[in-house]
């Protein structure tokens, strides 16, 4: 059974998907760390993004998932943090490519944009795809 740690967080606009994806990940054997929010009450997405990205920067875990209404706000907030490569994905091809080519460490999703079954597929593909390294590593190094 997979015991990889993964953080998950959302604002109020992504709360329902966070709860569903969290269950999905636990069923697959992941150790899920929920960084909030814990209700549908309005909250500020940059705070949640900071909670999650700090865990990656502090090497507590390698990957995280952030969800808001569109995924855009979370991706902007997460990418403000040095060392974070957050990717907003609304399809499985992008989820695979961003891990293989960009070594993304945060997946962003939009609850109001995609269906939950597609979200599960994107999460599964993103988590199971390995970074290819090689020529892609040189480009990632340029981001630092």
Question: Could you please describe the fold and organization of this structure?
Answer:
The chain is an alpha/beta fold. The chain has one domain: Ribose 5-phosphate Isomerase B, Chain: A. The chain is 45% helix and 17% strand. It contains 6 helices and 5 strands, in the order βαβαβαβαβαα. A 5-stranded parallel β-sheet has the order 2-1-3-5-4, sandwiched between helices. Strand 1 (5-10), helix 1 (15-27) and strand 2 form a beta-alpha-beta unit. Helix 4 (92-100) runs parallel beside helix 5. It is globular, with a radius of gyration of 14 Å. It starts with a strand and ends with a helix. The relative contact order is 0.18.
Describe this protein with a few key phrases.
alpha/beta; five-stranded parallel sheet; 6 helices
Give the full name of the CATH homologous superfamily.
Sugar-phosphate isomerase, RpiB/LacA/LacB
Q: Low-confidence parts lasting 5 or more residues at pLDDT below 50?
A: none
Q: What is the CATH topology classification name?
A: Ribose 5-phosphate Isomerase B, Chain: A
In angstroms, what separates the terminal alpha carbons? Answer: 34 Å
Question: What's the tally of helices?
Answer: 6
What coarse outline follows from CA principal-axis ratios? globular
CATH class, named Alpha Beta
SS-based class: alpha/beta
Q: What CATH architecture would you give?
A: 3-Layer(aba) Sandwich
What is the strand arrangement across the widest sheet? 2-1-3-5-4
Radius of gyration: 14 Å
The ordered string of helix (H) and strand (E) elements is EHEHEHEHEHH
Count of spatially separate domains: 1
Number of strands: 5
Query: What is the percentage of strand-forming residues?
Result: 15-25%
Largest sheet: 5 strands, parallel
Overall mean pLDDT stands at 96
